[in-house]
Design brief:
alpha/beta; 13 helices; two-stranded antiparallel sheet
Length: 340
């Protein structure tokens, strides 16, 4: 049975990634840890607990680790993900409580107890993972696979002209993580899902409608001409909450002249971690700028060995959005049908 350690900053697209993994059969969520990013760490934990319960996954350990980046002040994104991080969705108060364990300790304990078994998926800033690597430098060998959503190489940044959000929130952590993978075997290097390919994951209102159909729910129309802030009336609880979250994301992207759509970065990373989505990747030596105010958080990939250093990452270079959205609608629609 595939088993995952997740680190999230839930987050609309994190929520979709969590719902997708929860939908997969015979899949274990060993633990989920909260890193501050889209919202503060305590709100991340509440969002995550509530969402997992909605998805029929109560009892998963959800733990908080760092509450701020390693070296820079925390910046959150209420304008992108809403004041609570889930757009217009108002999640029910979770029955469960965050674990009393520290997220970093929990990751290390799980990895040591199950060497070679756990896939790590990080859809948040890399703060907790950097702290875990400080504490257990052999973590890369203990984990079966690591997938990171972050960075921008040949693509315009989404936070500054050159920097992607997760990396920009904690560039020092990202720099430490990539440094920790220097000299590791190719099969152990993290798979990096950057904006170069995640921005091709454009979710549209038609996908929300297809999700509702797959759930056996009433038609779900999220339309560009609707008044901003409209809410779903779907009788399917999961469809309703995801629709309300995604409507906010559609409106945000439209405000920035990207169209009435949502880039669902973290869902793609989840599918790469699960091995269900098509992709190609190239080895590269990756580093992160942490000194220049102009370029803070910029990721740079040396694909040609010009620095003379060994690869420390596998950067995703190609994907198949059409296949990915068929998989999303089928899996999450089926989950919504079961729990809704």
């Amino acid at each position: 049975m595939p088993a995952y350690l997740l680190d999230v900053d839930t987050g609309i697209d994190d929520a979709l990634a969590l719902a997708y993994l929860a939908a997969l059969p015979d899949t274990e969520l060993a633990a989920v840890t909260a890193t501050p990013g889209n919202v503060d760490a305590d709100q991340v934990a509440r969002n995550t607990l509530a969402l997992l319960e909605l998805c029929g996954r109560p009892g998963v350990q959800v733990a908080v680790g760092a509450r701020k980046p390693l070296s820079v002040p925390l910046v959150t994104t209420p304008e992108t993900h809403g004041p609570q991080g889930i757009g217009y969705a108002v999640l029910p108060e979770p029955a469960g409580q965050p674990s009393t364990r520290n997220a970093v300790d929990l990751w290390i304990e799980q990895a040591r107890a199950r060497p070679g078994e756990l896939t790590a998926l990080i859809t948040a800033p890399l703060t907790n993972f950097a702290l875990a690597l400080r504490q257990e430098p052999e973590l890369p060998d203990l984990l079966a696979k690591v997938v990171i959503m972050g960075g921008a190489f040949y693509h315009q940044g989404n936070t500054t002209p050159t920097a992607e959000w997760n990396t920009h929130v904690d560039p020092h952590a990202a720099k430490e993580v990539y440094a920790a993978y220097r000299g590791r075997p190719l099969k152990k290097l993290p798979i990096v899902c950057s904006l170069d390919t995640t921005e091709r994951m454009e979710l549209h209102p038609a996908h929300v409608a297809a999700l509702a159909r797959a759930a056996g729910a009433a038609p779900e129309l999220v339309l560009p001409e609707d008044p901003e802030g409209s809410r779903s009336t779907s009788g399917n609880t999961l469809v309703r909450h995801l629709s309300d979250a995604l409507r906010f994301y559609f409106e945000f992207h439209r405000h920035y002249d990207q169209g009435y759509l949502a880039h669902v970065h973290d869902f793609f990373a989840a599918g790469v971690a699960a091995g269900t989505l098509e992709y190609t990747a190239r080895p590269a030596t990756v580093d992160v700028e942490t000194d220049s105010p102009l370029l803070m958080g910029t990721t740079v990939a040396d694909f040609r060995g010009l620095w003379g250093g060994p690869p420390n990452a596998r950067v995703v270079s190609g994907n198949n959005p059409e296949q990915a959205f068929r998989e999303l609608v089928s899996a999450v629609g089926g989950l919504a049908r079961r729990v809704g």
